[in-house]
């Protein structure tokens, strides 16, 4: 379900959604919604943070309008599920000058890649091969253990705390751009070979962001679809 938004992004019908996968910052290690959340034409709210705000709002109409909602709630759910993941990948809130690391060509061990792809897939695929016998289910089990009884169990209440959606989403974006500066871009230049040292030091960051994204998506969906009206959100920033 969560990969649908990537699978359809090249279709002309959904071309409008391409900017919703990321937010570009002006190489300043900060995210400011009004400054950074727009598409190339300057249209506001067209970034990953704006998308999460919008689709969360659309889904809340389910409670009051049901099938009479003017929105495609199935697509809203599919988009939201994907974009909560995207906003937790640090380079989806990276620098405009290198398109979130997409134009920084590197080698990942012996294979050509770029910095964005290293954080999108290469670190995870290497971890799967080295530690999980290429079994995604084993990786998921470890994430679940660390959330329920391991290193993150005390952090979960903080991660899922959210009163105002807009403020929460901005915070998630701010976390990502901070991590991009401290971990993704740090020590990297075009043409460099990234291998054991980079992998070993960055894998814990990737794993924690996967866990945070899952916890926060669950929180959003539980609140959106709760029958208890008091479990809803405020939407001011």
From TrEMBL:
Reactions mediated catalytically: Endonucleolytic cleavage to 5'-phosphomononucleotide and 5'-phosphooligonucleotide end-products
Keywords: Disulfide bond, Endonuclease, Glycoprotein, Hydrolase, Metal-binding, Nuclease, Signal
Top EC class, one word: hydrolase
PANTHER family: ENDONUCLEASE 1, ENDONUCLEASE 4
Subunit (UniProt): Monomer.
Family per similarity comment: Belongs to the nuclease type I family.
Protein name: Aspergillus nuclease S1
């Amino acid at each position: 379900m969560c990969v649908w938004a990537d699978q359809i992004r090249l279709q002309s019908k959904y071309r409008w959604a391409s900017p919703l996968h990321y937010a570009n910052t002006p190489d300043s290690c900060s995210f400011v919604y009004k400054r950074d959340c727009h598409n190339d034409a300057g249209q506001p709210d067209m970034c990953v943070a704006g998308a999460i705000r919008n689709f969360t709002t659309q889904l809340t109409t389910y409670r009051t309008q049901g099938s009479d909602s003017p929105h495609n709630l199935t697509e809203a759910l599919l988009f939201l599920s994907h974009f909560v993941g995207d906003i937790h990948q640090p380079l989806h809130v990276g620098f405009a000058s290198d398109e979130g690391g997409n134009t920084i060509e590197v080698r990942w061990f012996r294979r050509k890649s770029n910095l964005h792809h290293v954080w999108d897939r290469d670190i995870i695929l290497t971890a799967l091969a080295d530690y999980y016998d290429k079994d995604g289910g084993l990786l998921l089990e470890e994430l679940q253990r660390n959330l329920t009884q391991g290193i993150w169990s005390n952090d979960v209440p903080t991660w899922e705390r959210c009163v105002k959606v807009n403020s929460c989403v901005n915070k998630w974006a701010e976390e990502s751009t901070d991590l991009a500066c401290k971990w993704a871009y740090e020590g990297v230049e075009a043409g460099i070979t990234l291998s054991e040292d980079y992998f070993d030091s960055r894998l814990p960051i990737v794993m924690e962001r996967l866990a945070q994204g899952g916890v926060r998506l669950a929180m959003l969906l539980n609140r959106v679809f709760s029958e208890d009206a008091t479990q809803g959100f405020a939407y001011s920033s």
